[in-house]
Amino acid sequence: MNETPGNDASGNALNGTDRLEIAIIVQDEAWKEHVAGLEAIARRSIEAGLQGAALRDPGHTSGGRLEVSLVFADDAAVAALNKGYRGREGPTNVLSFPNMDGDPDMDGPDMEGEALPARDPAGAPPRLLGDIVLARETVLREAAEQRKSVADHSTHLLVHGFLHLLGYDHTTDAEADAMESLEVAVLAGLGVADPYTPADPLAPSPDGPDGGPVDQGVPGQDVPAHSASGHSVSGGGS
Hints:
Layout: E1 6-7, E2 13-14, E3 20-26, H1 31-34, H2 38-56, H3 58-61, E4 66-73, H4 75-86, E5 94-98, E6 127-135, H5 136-145, H6 150-165, H7 173-189, E7 230-231
């Protein structure tokens, strides 16, 4: 796969995922009971998202070193973030928090089309793109409802959230079409089926009937909806 190189602080070429630092925080250890190899899957998802975006729009993703933080939390933690940053009750499946240069207002400037810097200033740390937070119970419930494995649904949410950190959005039909087509292409490369094609409602859940209980959650089959930093992503949307 061809990748767009960036540069380190000395101007040396950084190829593809070599320029990407991924911090993974598992706040809710129950995640590991439902997704074998959770951290490896998470890294692969983010790396594939960067590679796919680089192929689709090289100018948009060229630059130096990058950093992203992934947090695997529970519904309660995500509900608190959803309330605090978006003023909405209850959890959502994934929240993305773009780095707005320290600005706590997550409704900051639109990042769409904003190219990453060509190279890092000398001695500068990686550019922090932002944070992605997943809610375990909601993700498990949605996966069961949509007849997907928890691993595949989590992969989709991570790719979707990461593309938002790169500046992709779906506030217009054209933006949604471009973002969804990129998601589908990235996921196909990971062996994950098109998440926007509704699953057979009679098909058994890949993870079995006891994939995980949910006490709270957003309704299933929501169309992806970007707000301050929150998304409700599922199959069957457009």
